[in-house]
Amino acid sequence: MSGVISQNVGRHTGLVKAAEGGGGEWTLISTLTSDGSDANLSFTSGLDSTYEVYCFKLINIHAETDDTHFQFNVSIDGGSNYNVSKIGTIFRGYHNEAGAGAAFNYDSGQDMTGTGYGTLFSSVDISNDSSGCTEFYLWNPSSTTYTKHFSIRNIFQQTDANPYVYDYWVGGYINTTSAVNAVQFKMSSGEIQGGTISLFGIG
Would you tell me how many other CB atoms lie within 10 Å of the CB of residue 45? Predict the structure, then answer.
């Protein structure tokens, strides 16, 4: 399945004052909610030239499979293919639930260097109280002149004998001058077992 979608009826409804993300007003474009059996959650409409900045807000994403990665890819053909080259890097802070094992470092293992799915957060925990939350900013996806920059902030729990909380910062660009018009989110293994993703236009 591809999630339950709630589409707003006009681009000038659902306005939210931006206290973050550089100012402007936020317009809710659409929301996808996992029904617990979703192979992916895909946005195949709403990304166009109306706004120069878009933001996906991901709330309480929960995995079916333990120690899997939550990922994204983009499309330039309306969602027929998700295979666009990306260049990205991740740094992270983390702390053990038991009060030890804290660090802040560059995670070279999650670099994005090709057309495959990029990692938002890794090795997620399937405990009932565990989930991940994300803000994903995408700049000027409809441009046919420039590559498309993105920045991502994630908070999530990682599975372990003593679970960790992770704060992931992801940045990079989609390496194409073609317009990006669809974005897909999925687990590297298993289904999305819960969570909501909302797409906003900022301007």
Answer: 14
d(Cα 13, Cα 89) in Å, to the nearest integer? Answer: 35
Q: Are 114 and 36 in contact (CB under 8 A)?
A: no
Q: Which residues contact 60 (CB under 8 A, 6 or more apart)?
A: 131, 132, 133, 194, 195, 196
pTM of the model: 0.87
Domain ranges, residue 96: 4-202
- Residue 34: give its domain's CATH number: 2.60.120
What's the rounded Cα separation, in Å, for the pair 16 and 99? 38
The 10s digit of each residue's pLDDT in 76-86 is: 999 999 999 99
Q: Which tokens hold the place of 71?
A: 């990922």
Between 97 and 18, name the one with better pLDDT: 97
Total structural domains in the chain?
Answer: 1
